[in-house]
Amino acid sequence: MTTIRIGVIGTGVMGTDHVETISKSIARAEVRAVADIDVGRAEAVAARIPGAKALSSAEALIESAEIDAVIIASSNPTHGPYTLASIAAGKPVLCEKPLAETAAECEQILRAEETAGTRLVQIGFMRRYDPGYVELRARVASGEIGAPLLAHCVHRNVSVPPLWTSEDIVLTSAVHEIDVMPWVFGREVVNVNWFSPMPNAPGVRRDPQVAILELEGGALIFIELFMAANYGYEIRCEIVGEKGTIELAPVARTVSRSDLRVQVDLAADWRPRFAEAYRRELQSWVNAILAWNSGDLNNVSGPVHGPDAWDGYRAAVIAEALVASMSSGGPVRVESLAIPGLYQQGRS
Ligand code: ISE
């Protein structure tokens, strides 16, 4: 097999973005089918991609003999069921976060993978492919700032859909820091605590929120989540160590000066900010599937070399602990992640 035939479920913001990235920038892969509950939307996306068709159902896409690998970018409640269906069909699957809505559902996915005998699931934690985060992690590991002690993270959206709840902010947005910061520090989360300033005008959600994650050994991660920040999409991260600090540099390519002002443009959402991360994520996923298909004996981890179902499960456990802290108003300990009898037990 020289080209991976991909099927994309969900043609909303992320599904459409993946379809476009694959068509324009990914080698040895093509989109052959898209599926969406809104058939008209799926047809409109398929019409722009030569050789792609719109299918009536996600299940038909997963089972199609013309599809080698699946991307799930439909609504959050569908992630778990479509991931399980892809495992049952023996197909590699890249599922957008969250892997499932609960840690218990993620555990079911881990067990299904174990029964299948291969790790088939990659999760869309694209920040692990972002050149900035990759460098941050390498420099922390190099020891140049001594032991890392703290991280200050800022995660701001222009706005979110009107019905998003306080919990959605944790499960859909904070989940990125929940995944990437333990990866940068190389340590697990042991304790979480959630705060929010009292709102002036109570609404459907508490926004902004602050999450504090304590890692093994005592390092602290402070995360500001502000979903109605209005002014632009912005991600910041600074690591404070014993001997210095390292932070993500601003990503704008140009700075302008006029009318007594210095200006830097910000994006309206995460797609431009993480475009290179998405490209690298997709190419690496395709390359891993090709290597697996070619029977590469060094390829012991199946078609998944990036964040996997275990990482999706870990993030779900920590997100649930944060939601518990939101209700109890106090710190919540993250109990051991190990699942008795599971082969991933203890894997980092
Ligand atoms: C969105 O769903 C994403 O996944 C973005 O990466 C994140 O930064 C944003 O807050 C979410 O709304």
What does the overall shape look like? globular
**What is the strand tally?**
15
**Percent of residues in beta strands:** 15-25%
Query: For the report, how would you describe the main beta sheet?
Result: 7 strands, mixed
Bound molecules: (2R,3S,4s,5R,6S)-2,3,4,5,6-pentahydroxycyclohexanone
CATH architecture verdict of the largest domain: 3-Layer(aba) Sandwich
Number of domains: 2
Low-confidence stretches: none
Give the oligomeric state of the chains in this entry, treating copies of one chain as homo and distinct chains as hetero: single chain
Strand order of the largest sheet: 12-11-7-10-9-8-15
Proportion of helical residues: 25-40%
Kindly provide the radius of gyration, computed on alpha-carbon positions and rounded to a whole number of angstroms. 20 Å
Distance between the termini: 32 Å
Task: Give a concise summary.
This protein has ten helices and 15 strands. By secondary structure, the chain is of the alpha/beta class. Helix 4 packs parallel to helix 5 and helix 5 packs antiparallel against helix 10.
